[in-house]
Amino acid sequence: MTCKRIVELGARAYPIHIGPDLLPKLGAHCAEEKMGSKTLIVSDDHVDALYGGVAEESLRSVGLVTARVTVPAGEPSKSHDPLIRIYHAALDAGLERSSSIVALGGGVVGDLAGFAAATYLRGIRLIQVPTSLLAMVDSAVGGKTGINLPQGKNLIGAFYQPSMVLADTATLRTLPPREFCAGLAEVVKYGVIADAGLFDALEGKTPEILMNDDALLEDIICRSCEIKADVVRDDEREGGVRAILNFGHTLGHAIEQVSGYGRYLHGEAIAMGMVYAARLSERELAFPAKDTERLIRLLKALRLPVTMPDLSWPALMEAMRHDKKKTGGTVGFVLAQSLGAVRFGCALPETLLNEVWEQNRDTGESRAP
Amino acid sequence: MTCKRIVELGARAYPIHIGPDLLPKLGAHCAEEKMGSKTLIVSDDHVDALYGGVAEESLRSVGLVTARVTVPAGEPSKSHDPLIRIYHAALDAGLERSSSIVALGGGVVGDLAGFAAATYLRGIRLIQVPTSLLAMVDSAVGGKTGINLPQGKNLIGAFYQPSMVLADTATLRTLPPREFCAGLAEVVKYGVIADAGLFDALEGKTPEILMNDDALLEDIICRSCEIKADVVRDDEREGGVRAILNFGHTLGHAIEQVSGYGRYLHGEAIAMGMVYAARLSERELAFPAKDTERLIRLLKALRLPVTMPDLSWPALMEAMRHDKKKTGGTVGFVLAQSLGAVRFGCALPETLLNEVWEQNRDTGESRAP
How far is A301 from chain B (nearest CA, A)? Predict the structure, then answer.
């Protein structure tokens, strides 16, 4: 079984294929979409060792001329030197305007190779082949690409839509469990912001999900991509409603930044950020406390942290202020009214932010059963 | 007198202001278009010394917070290090998503600062303030931005439309005459590809143009921008008709490349390329020989070269082949049927290319009266 969805963006609409053992069919899907005759597979050294050969063989089997380039695994590769390395590999491989770049890997590879595709010869085709859960449900869909500067994450980039996304759920079997669980945080987020039914399903099937049940994974990834695709369709360049995708991210980003990136995975920081946002939502939008308890219970069952971390609150506040400025337009918190319904751009008084932080720092975990 | 035109690109439509002494009104025009509160002026050291102060004062007079950054004048600045310098200046100036970058200068500054604006925070507003004739009639309009790699020109870039173009024709008075004339080559091109009337006007008013007549310059720049804007509107990302803008550029680019950039200005190489393309057009599309003679006469009157340069023909052929591959899609020459009407994508036999080269190498100049 596989699932296929189309992201509706007019002339830039693209298909998403999701299912087990899709990677060997990459070439066939590329041929279907007339992807040009040359392609460069960009990956990190870990993922390339596991899947680079399968991807390349599949592309060659349909007559494509391929080349491969790898960057070291990890966030530091989202920077200028690896980017230039990809440009040179693209030139060496003779990539033309009609050629394509295949981004094979997690979020780092997707963002980096995506930005390379967006800017090489002013833009060539991009095929996202996410191999982490986070990339499948989040970064591979939606068109955000970019790299970091020493001054901050994602400061350089482009909105650039892929021509195709292919998510082989079988690749999740080699994903470290901690990363898998961190990816689930974003799935929980989709439940909170847009789909109470998805939230229910996650609650009801936690053990099966953690055991990597193929059909179930396909379902929740597919539903996550649908929600993200709908939001992106309505607001491609992040001027409005796309902000709801940042539920839990205001504090989450600050936690990542203040803790120095690496201590928490993105999804873990978002899990804590969602608990905080839910508590704020209780105070501001009468979000039911029992639903915050459900959220905490679900996140804990998915092995995600729910207690506020031991970090300097003034430092977190400062980071949140900076994050708001950077993202512009959509200042303020995303808060939930009920499971499946949120509001964005909520400006909140600092006293409330302080108070809820203090309360959850002390009691966040103990409140959960 | 000033002229205002709108480039019609749907949600990304933008105004072009053309006329003498517009630079002191830059701030007022920015305020009109609600350009955000912070702006970074990017320029080269030559242009900054002449006009940076006026531009900054104008922006400050309407309450904008401004900063300035300069790169060395010249093509080598279209590269990664100056780009990163601009990113850092943007961060130091606290530029946010709602801020803007002003590109004050010629084509190099416009392409470089344009690419910085396209990629900083995934894209902020860009205001093109071209100060060279070439930039006014060509590079500032149309949304091509980018930088060079050691392997070739414009290999990295983005299609990114400005929010406004402001061309102060008074700045042309400080442009070196040779550069001014090179810019006129592109104006002649617009006549050939789209407007026999413009061609006639250039023929009839050559002395006035060379004497920098304000009203006349405003007219021909305005008309050039209109033609370019129309073509770009119909083909923003260069899949089809935009190719006609490359009349004379197939050989022209090759001449620039083989001669090593610097020996000929872009417009000079294009002038020779147009003569060659016109001769090919005689053979292939029955373009009248007398119109080629008119073209040669006009280019010479504008102090532009019309005889084929003393360069290796095999090297030029190789460069043309490479150029075609790189630009993809639109393979082949742009040829004229008559003044004002061209066809693109004309594939020509190598024997014809050789023959016309040989003929014009010997007699190109002597044919002109």
Answer: 36
Predicted complex ipTM: 0.90
Q: What is the C-alpha to C-alpha distance for residues A49 and B117, in angstroms, rounded to an integer?
A: 37
Taking contacts as CB-CB distances below 8 angstroms, the residues of chain A near B94 are 325
| pLDDT, position A259 | 93
Q: Are strands A14-19 and A38-44 parallel, antiparallel or unpaired?
A: unpaired
Q: What pLDDT does B321 receive? A: 85
Structure token digits, residue B112? 């470089």
Fold classification of A3-174 (topology level): Rossmann fold (3.40.50)
The DSSP H or E segment spanning B291 is helix B289-301
Instruction: Look at residue A1 in the predicted model and tell me its pLDDT.
Output: 65
CB of B109 within 8 A of CB of B44?
Answer: yes
Q: How far, in Å, CA of A272 to CA of A250, rounded?
A: 11
The CATH superfamily assigned to A178-367 is Dehydroquinate synthase-like - alpha domain (1.20.1090.10)
Question: What CATH fold (topology level) applies to the domain B180-367?
Answer: Dehydroquinate synthase-like, alpha domain (1.20.1090)
**Scanning every residue of chain A, which has its alpha carbon at the shortest distance from the alpha carbon of B327?**
A97
What are the b/e assignments for B317-346, b being 16+ CB within 10 Å? bebbeebbebbbebeebbbbeebbebbbeb
Listed residue (A231, A233, A251, A252) closest to A242, CA to CA: A231
In this prediction, residue B324 carries a pLDDT of 61
Q: Which residues of A196-206 are buried (b: 16+ CB within 10 A; e: fewer)?
A: eebbebbeeeb
Element containing residue B166 per DSSP (H, E): strand B164-168
Q: Give yes or no for a contact between A249 and A276, defined as CB atoms under 8 angstroms apart.
A: no
Question: Token pair for residue A123?
Answer: 């833009």
Q: How many beta-carbon contacts under 8 Å exist across A and B?
A: 85
* Cβ separation A327–B157 shorter than 8 A: no
Does position B11 have pLDDT exceeding 80, yes or no? no
B186 is catalytic: yes
If you average pLDDT over residues B271-275, what whole number do you get? 98
Rounded to whole angstroms, the Cα distance separating B92 from B56 reads 17
* Helix, strand, or coil (residue A163): coil
Q: Distance (Å, rounded) from C-alpha B347 to C-alpha B332? A: 5
In the annotation, is B266 catalytic? yes
Interface test with chain B among A83, A87, A119, A120, by most B beta carbons within 10 Å:
A119
Those of residues 324-343 in B touching chain A at CB distance below 8 A are 325-329
CA distances from B194 to A332, B75, B245, B296 (A): 51, 30, 10, 18
Residues 6+ apart with CB under 8 A from B59: B26, B27, B30, B39, B41, B66, B102
DSSP 3-state of A196? helix
On whether the pTM is more than 0.80, the answer is: yes
Residue type, B62: V
Every domain of chain A and the residues it spans: 3-174, 178-367
Q: Is the pLDDT of residue A368 over 70?
A: no
Q: Is the pLDDT of residue B264 over 90?
A: yes
Q: How far apart are CA B336 and CA B288, in angstroms?
A: 9
- Given the residues A25, A29, A68, A144, the one annotated as active site: A144
